[in-house]
């Protein structure tokens, strides 16, 4: 297999030590941040040794097939909050009410898998009752930013002909704008109820929870005529695990431990464009 090592300031000595641990004697520098170690051996013992050394050196590591190509996939599906973008939108909306600590605590518990997502969203949205809907635009204008590497990743996968899906437990106000801004093909998220310019503290229609995220990936893949095994799915929280579990490549981005442990790829240090060096040619 290929062992791909990536870091924002990679130390070549660490790269060589890790390559040796994996039994690789052929190291190719792919960019300023990425190295390919060919002929690596992936065993439980090797992976554990590589993981420890890589984490100590602030390096991301991934074992991938030597023949893996981006064109082997047809869809990239992404979570939004804390994955495609750097913030949790609902936490920042709550900040407009002076309620960020209370809402953020619930968000964090849900993302760690300690609280069922549907319950957590209902509780958090209820705390927003009475907030002027203009707060949503303020969050978008003043606080929303793309995650590192997001733009480069999206341009590369779109150029390769892959379709893109943003599926979020967040809100249509933000996913609709992301779709237009980034040229995404599909979006699916929750709709906040607004009456007389105020948030009512309720969501219109069904809640996009872990099961609905998985079902959305399945629906989009079916519409494209591809199996979910031809989807790359990215997320950071426990509510992403079900859709990541049906994918051909699951990517944990700056994710909670429960998500990193189950993902094929964990990007802890580099940006979302860290998926690109995983593909040969």
What report would you give on this structure?
- The active site is at 79 (nucleophile), 81 (proton donor).
- The chain is of the alpha/beta class and 281 residues long.
- The protein has helices spanning 12-21, 44-56, 89-95, 100-111, 117-126, 134-142, 150-159, 172-182, 210-224, 241-245, 257-260; strands at 2-6, 26-29, 34-38, 60-64, 75-78, 163-171, 186-195, 198-204, 231-235, 249-253, 265-267.
- The strands form 2 sheets. Strands 8-7-6-5-9-10-11 form a 7-stranded mixed beta sheet, sandwiched between helices. The chain has a 4-stranded antiparallel beta sheet with strand order 2-3-1-4, covered by helices on one side.
- Helix 8 (172-182) links the parallel strand 6 and strand 7.
- Helix 1 (12-21) packs antiparallel against helix 2, helix 3 packs antiparallel against helix 4 (100-111) and helix 4 (100-111) packs antiparallel against helix 5.
Nearest-integer average pLDDT: 96
With strands numbered from the N-terminus, the spatial order across the biggest sheet is 8-7-6-5-9-10-11
Please provide the count of β strands: 11
Helical fraction equals 25-40%
Question: Per DSSP, what share of the residues sits in E-state strands of 2 or more residues?
Answer: 15-25%
At the fourth level of CATH, the homologous superfamily of the largest domain is HAD superfamily/HAD-like
Global morphology: elongated
CATH class of the largest domain: Alpha Beta
Could you please say which CATH topology of the largest domain applies here? Rossmann fold
| Gyration radius, rounded | 20 Å
Structural class category: alpha/beta
